Structure formats: structure tokens, C-alpha cells
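Retry 2 of 3 after timeout on previous attempt. Resubmitting C-alpha cells to design endpoint.
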């Protein structure tokens, strides 16, 4: 068996030991061993880091750190590297940082320098930055570690936030990319045009490109509810098949436009996370691009943790579109979502259903499958609602709708949330036929929860809607079946195919005949 295999097997065994045994027996044996045995059993050091982080007693942290600090002075480089890797797991502080920096000044091994960089990335602070400033740049760990440590020092000092109310003037050539589910672009466009702050430049699958008509704020962008994410277009980088150059991407990220946007819209350090959309982690590419961007503009910091911005790389036909996206959590449009149900609606879909329903006065609205209440909340927000009803067969969902609805602070609206099967609604609510003006809903689609006779559920929905809607009332819903209304009084007004997160579904509007 080769030595790396035996090392892995040993680590697996040690990792499974209870902390007390690992510390007393295995660490004791390691400390008492000769150089060769210590070399063969370095896995003990790794196991100490991992097992202590999981189940070690907090009161022993100083003792464990002391042991690892001692190993940083071991004559064997491999032992020192293992100790460096384990230290952040114990919660290393200034003493350990000083020890690591002393080693950094002495070492002549590139491998050890890399390992020191990885540890300092995690635990380094001002002392690390001061030391790095004295080391020769142009190679080695300095720039990468410097960027990471600057970012973590900034993160610890004050978490940066996105300034929603800051005005962006003088950005007339700016393009904003509103992204969302395929099939909803027309509604996004309609909403943008109704607001009148931006003009629509271009519409593609799942993307509406807009340009400001004058000075604007991000708060005004987030007054639009039908899109999912917004990104400022920083530029296009050529390169077919994902082969866009590191240099090209870095230049766009470090551009004066990016810096000006970030400086205007960020409270605190300018930190961003880099994401190659739809391509997984891409750790190597992220590192290369972030290193190069930092070399070009050291005021903008790449930081995977809690960054207020993302730079998203979207593949396009001829290369990549680079976009700067605010990472707002929660999305300010949905701060009312205190809780969720497993099959909750995608919030922009709920807003789009609301647009399709149109705006009328004195509405009585029912969501037969209210879940966490998004459709009812989005419709009530638009005004003109006198009364809402929500039913769901899950009591937990009804409680969640109640809480979310209250958190949305929607003013004086009569609200009734009832636990039960939607077919029993007239009896549960004590309502006469023809009492409702709008039924708006995203029913169970049989994907996450199996529903016996799903088609029958939709037939029953048509039947109950035909009975409970007043003449002129609307039924707006997502329908996974290609079916015509079995109820002659319900007339189809519109139908569009929408991607509901990996599968297509119809979004339909019916109107009850009469009036
Ligand atoms: C897709 S979810 C609704 C999501 C909801 N629009 C939201 O904002 O979270 C469908 C809901 O229908 C409920 N449901 C399923 N069958 C039902 C039935 N026969 N009667 C009433 N509710 C039902 C489920 O409990 C689930 O909460």
C-alpha cells in the first residue's frame, strides 16, 4: 500500500475516535515517537483539528492551540504544514498569527509558503497585512493572501451593506439586466414601462435589459416586483465556449465603471463574490480572475463570505456577460416572508400572477391553496382589495400565511385564513355562490408532493371557480395540464408557457361570463 493511502486510512480511523481518546492516547503516542513515526502519523494532527472542532471541550482550546503552536517549530516541514492547516479549526488568534508570520519570514520552501498563505487567509489580521507589505511582491503568496486578509479584516470590522437609497446620476449609458423565469419577460417589461423610470432596451429568454431615463436609486429598481435578480452590466468578454480570458474578465471587474458603481452603492468595503453562473464552483478560475482583478484595482476585494455584491459571469453566444448584482438577504421586496412552506411560490411568479389579474376596486379574493400566502399578499399590496380568503389543507401553512400577511402590514383588509380542503370552501367561509371577484392561486402541481388524481383537482378547481366567482370575476392560476375549461361560463383570456424552475407550465387567466 502506498504511503498516501495508508495516511488516508489512518486519518479515517483517527477521525472516528472520541475526542478524549484521540487527545490522550494518540497525541501522547505522537509526541513520544521518533522522527520517522511522527512523519508517518501526521494524520493525528489533522484529526485533532477536525475532531476538536466537532466535539472538543471549549475549555481545552488553549492547550490544543499550544500543542499546535509547538508543532509549527518542528524540524519536519510536513508536520509544520499539518499544524498550520489545523489551527484555524481551533480558533487561532494573535499569538498563532505572530508565530505563523515568523515562519513566513524564515521559510525558503514555496510549498510551506503556500500553506502559510492558506492559513493566514483564514486567521490573518492587521499584523499579517503589515508583514506582507514588507515582503517582496511579484510572486509568492503576498497579493492573494493580502486580498483575502484585507477582505476578512474589513468584514470583521463592519459588514458592508448595499445603499438602496443612493442616487445614481450620470450613468445614462448604463444597462441593467433584469433576470427571471422564462415566459415572464412580457410581464417584467410591462411593469418597467408602467413605472416610467427606465426604458426597455432588449428582451431575451429570461432577460429584460433596461436603461435609466434619468437619475435613479436601487430602491426604485426594487419597486419592480416581477423580475427575480438585477445586475448592472459591466461588459461583455469575448471567447467562445467558456474560453473567455482571465485578463478580459479581470479588466471588466476592475474597471472604472465597476468601481464607481460599487463606491456609490456600498456602505463599507467594496467586496464581491465571483460566480460562474450554471458552471459550479470553478474554484481555480475564480482564484485566477480574482487575483488578476486585485492586481488591477486593489480597492475592490474578492470575498466569498458575506459579500454585499456578486459579480456574475453569464455565458453568452460569443463569450460572457459580466454583471454586478446586489446580494440582498432578505430581498427587500419580500421582507414579510417570516416563514415558508416546502412548495412555496417563487415570489416573482406571485407578482406576475397579480399583474395578470389586473387591478380592480373592491375585490373579494380567494387563494384556494394559499401555502405561505404570497399571491394574496402580492395582490393586496396593489390595493383595491376589501376582503381576502385563503384556504390550505395544512394547518401549519395557514399559520404561516397569517404571520406573513400580518408582517406585510397591508392596512385594513378583512382577512380569513381557513384550514381545510378547497372543495369545502363555501361551507368553511359561509359564502354564497357568486361572492368572489378574483381567484388567484399556484395550486399543487404534483411535483414535490404527490396528489392522487391531480387532473381531478384541476377539474374541481374549475367547477368551484365557476360557482363562486361573480360575473366578470377572474380565475388566474398555474395549470400543468393542457386542458380547456370544462365549465362553459369560464372563458380563457390568456395563456402563456412559463418555466417553473425546470419544467414548463401554463399560466392562465379565465373570466366568468356575464357583465
Ligand atoms: C404550491 S403550494 C402553494 C404555495 C403558495 N402559493 C405560497 O405562496 O407559498 C400548494 C399548497 O396547496 C396545499 N394543498 C394541496 N392540496 C390541497 C387541497 N386539496 N385543499 C387545500 N389545500 C391543498 C398544500 O398544502 C400547499 O401548501
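Retry 2 succeeded. Sequence:
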Amino acid at each position: 500500500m502506498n504511503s498516501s493511502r495508508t495516511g488516508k486510512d489512518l486519518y479515517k480511523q483517527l477521525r472516528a475516535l472520541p475526542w478524549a481518546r484521540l487527545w490522550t492516547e494518540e497525541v501522547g503516542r505522537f509526541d513520544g515517537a521518533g522522527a520517522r513515526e511522527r512523519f508517518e502519523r501526521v494524520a493525528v494532527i489533522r484529526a485533532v483539528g477536525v475532531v476538536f472542532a466537532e466535539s472538543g471541550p471549549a475549555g481545552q482550546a488553549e492547550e490544543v492551540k499550544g500543542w499546535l503552536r509547538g508543532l509549527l517549530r518542528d524540524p519536519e516541514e510536513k508536520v509544520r504544514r499539518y499544524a498550520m492547516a489545523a489551527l484555524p479549526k481551533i480558533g487561532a488568534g494573535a499569538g498563532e498569527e505572530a508565530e505563523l508570520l515568523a515562519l513566513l519570514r524564515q521559510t525558503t520552501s514555496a510549498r510551506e509558503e503556500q500553506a502559510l498563505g492558506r492559513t493566514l487567509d483564514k486567521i490573518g489580521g492587521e499584523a499579517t497585512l503589515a508583514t506582507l507589505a514588507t515582503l517582496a511582491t511579484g510572486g509568492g503568496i503576498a497579493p492573494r493572501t493580502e486580498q483575502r486578509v484585507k477582505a476578512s479584516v474589513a468584514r470583521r470590522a463592519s459588514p458592508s451593506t448595499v445603499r438602496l437609497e443612493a442616487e445614481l446620476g450620470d450613468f445614462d449609458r448604463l444597462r441593467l439586466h433584469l433576470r427571471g423565469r422564462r415566459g415572464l419577460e412580457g410581464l417584467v417589461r410591462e411593469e418597467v414601462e408602467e413605472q416610467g423610470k427606465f426604458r426597455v432596451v432588449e428582451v431575451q429568454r429570461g432577460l429584460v435589459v433596461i436603461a435609466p431615463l434619468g437619475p435613479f436609486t436601487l430602491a426604485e429598481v426594487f419597486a419592480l416586483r416581477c423580475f427575480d435578480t438585477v445586475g448592472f452590466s459591466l461588459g461583455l468578454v469575448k471567447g467562445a465556449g467558456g474560453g473567455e480570458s482571465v485578463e478580459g474578465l479581470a479588466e471588466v471587474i476592475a474597471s472604472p465603471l465597476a468601481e464607481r458603481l460599487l463606491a456609490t452603492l456600498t456602505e463599507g468595503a467594496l467586496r464581491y463574490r465571483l460566480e460562474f453562473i450554471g458552471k459550479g464552483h470553478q474554484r481555480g478560475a475564480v482564484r485566477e480572475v480574482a487575483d488578476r482583478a486585485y492586481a488591477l484595482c486593489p480597492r475592490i476585494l474578492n470575498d466569498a463570505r458575506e459579500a454585499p455584491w456578486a459579480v456574475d459571469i453569464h455565458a453568452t453566444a460569443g463569450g460572457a456577460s459580466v454583471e454586478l448584482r446586489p446580494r440582498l438577504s432578505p430581498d427587500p421586496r419580500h421582507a414579510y416572508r417570516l416563514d415558508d412552506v416546502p412548495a412555496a411560490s417563487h415570489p416573482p411568479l406571485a407578482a406576475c400572477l397579480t399583474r395578470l389579474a389586473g387591478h380592480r376596486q373592491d375585490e373579494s379574493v380567494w387563494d384556494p391553496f394559499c401555502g405561505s400566502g404570497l399571491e394574496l399578499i402580492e395582490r393586496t399590496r396593489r390595493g383595491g382589495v376589501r376582503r381576502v380568503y385563503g384556504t390550505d389543507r395544512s394547518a401549519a401553512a395557514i399559520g404561516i400565511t397569517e404571520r406573513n400577511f400580518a408582517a406585510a402590514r397591508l392596512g385594513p383588509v378583512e382577512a380569513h385564513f381557513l384550514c381545510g380542503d378547497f372543495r369545502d370552501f363555501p361551507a368553511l367561509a359561509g359564502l354564497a355562490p357568486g361572492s368572489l371577484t378574483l381567484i388567484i392561486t399556484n395550486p399543487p402541481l404534483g411535483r414535490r408532493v404527490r396528489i392522487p388524481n391531480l387532473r381531478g383537482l384541476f377539474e374541481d378547481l374549475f367547477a368551484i371557480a365557476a360557482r363562486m366567482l361573480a360575473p366578470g370575476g377572474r380565475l388566474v392560476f398555474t395549470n400543468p395540464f393542457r386542458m380547456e375549461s370544462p365549465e362553459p361560463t369560464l372563458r380563457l383570456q390568456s395563456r402563456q408557457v412559463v418555466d417553473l424552475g425546470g419544467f414548463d407550465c401554463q399560466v392562465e387567466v379565465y373570466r366568468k361570463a356575464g357583465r
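Attempt log closed. The radius of gyration is 29 Å.
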